[in-house]
Each structure stands twice: as C-alpha cells, then as structure tokens.
Design goal:
This protein is an alpha+beta fold. The chain contains 3 helices and 4 strands.
Length: 102
C-alpha cells in the first residue's frame, strides 16, 4: 500500500490511551486517540469475546488456547490495512515513548 502522507512528516501525536470493556458489543481492548497535521481520530485494538466463556478465558489468559481463540483486531478508520500496519505501529511507538517504566 502506498501511503498518501509520510508518517514522519505529519506531526503525528498520541493524545490519549484508554482501555475499555464493552459488555454490549462483547469487546475489550485499547483506544488510542491521535492527532496530526492531516486530521485526528481513534485507533482501536480489541478482542471479541464470548460472554459464556469469558471467566474461563480470564483464568487461562496465558495459555495458547486463549491466544488462538481470541485474536486481536483493529479498527484504524482506514489509516491501515491488513497488509500494511505502519500507522498502528507508529502510534504504539509514540505511546511507548510516553510510558514511564518503573
């Protein structure tokens, strides 16, 4: 995918990062709110879950079965595609620069 704008030249910045758990949509994840010279938006990383199996998933979070049955998904508002996740990677990199490791 050829990008319309070079990510290093659009003054991309992370405004906020919020975890969420939406019972009505059966999703949990993380929303990164971003802004740049070309606009603003939200990049949402989420996992869909089956409410009947949710407690079992929580208890087995570190197992291969959990990872295989609960893949991460993303909604990038058309900033990325399956074969090009550069925008999401840049947002994660910018967010990690802000993180204080203790």
């Amino acid at each position: 995918m050829e990008r319309k704008h070079d990510l290093k030249k659009i003054n991309l910045r992370v405004i906020d990062v919020q975890p969420f758990h939406w019972d009505n949509l059966k999703r949990e994840g993380l929303t990164i709110t971003w802004a740049s010279d070309i606009g603003f938006g939200e990049y949402v990383f989420y996992r869909q879950y089956d409410p009947d199996k949710y407690n079992a998933y929580i208890e087995s979070r570190y197992s291969d079965e959990y990872e295989n049955n609960n893949p991460w998904n993303a909604n990038s508002e058309y900033m990325d595609r399956e074969d090009d996740k550069e925008f999401g990677l840049e947002l994660l990199r910018l967010w990690l620069e802000q993180v204080h490791v203790r």
